[in-house]
Design brief:
alpha+beta, globular, 9 strands, 5 helices, 210 residues, 24% helix, single chain
């Protein structure tokens, strides 16, 4: 995302989680490691701030791995060309400058990094699939500044996406904490989703919308 001259006379965006890890700026306890085939929900602090967790790492069998980070237009990232969940694929065996880190752009046809991130509120940018490695990645809703991400399998991705969209709609209808407290379907649907019971999460979210 460090595309230079996004805004004239402004500095480039901040550096990626890959570089921060190599510099020792991100510690091991700030990284959630998720194996392919697992279900895992994490809410990531913006990479430009300190927080826990900051990164999800998904190791692959060939020594490569994914890094998932929450990029928001704050701090050193205030000039980002786009914001949301950024997925990086790292190949440690590649020569420096020859694809060591590749941004898996949500919209590969978009200009530079203008639509690089994944966002639940964008229909063509709300799911990343790697069937070869049995991985599906979904951006979720925000909890404060923390952006949710679900790592699951391609098989479960369709029902997980349906449930996530329903939960997002329910939360949007009740934006204030006081309003949410009056609707018992909100905590129920969130609880089901975070336990990976996506059909029940969808059912609860739909009830909450009535």
């Amino acid at each position: 995302m460090s595309e230079h001259f996004v805004k004239r006379e402004e500095p480039p965006p901040g550096i990626s989680s890959f570089t921060k890890i190599r510099l020792g700026w991100i510690q091991a306890e700030e990284v959630v490691v998720v194996q392919p085939g697992e279900n895992w929900v994490a809410f990531l602090s913006p990479l430009a701030r300190k927080g826990n967790p900051l990164v999800v790492k998904i190791p692959l069998r060939d020594g490569q791995y994914y890094l998932l980070e929450n990029r928001q237009p704050i701090g050193y990232d205030r000039t980002l060309p786009d914001f949301g969940l950024l997925i990086l694929k790292v190949n440690p065996d590649a020569r420096e400058g020859y694809g060591t880190v590749q941004a898996m752009k949500a919209n590969p046809k978009a200009h530079h990094f203008s639509q690089a991130t994944y966002r639940l509120d964008q229909g063509h940018r709300n799911l990343y699939l790697d069937r070869q490695n049995n991985i599906a990645i979904l951006p979720l809703w925000k909890e404060g500044e923390h952006l949710g991400v679900l790592v699951t399998t391609p098989e479960k991705a369709p029902e997980a996406l349906q449930a996530a969209l329903a939960v997002q709609d329910l939360l949007a209808r009740y934006p204030e904490p006081g309003e949410r407290a009056k609707n018992p379907m909100i905590p129920e649907s969130l609880s089901y989703f975070k336990r990976y019971d996506f059909p029940k999460a969808l059912e609860s979210a739909k009830k909450g919308m009535k």
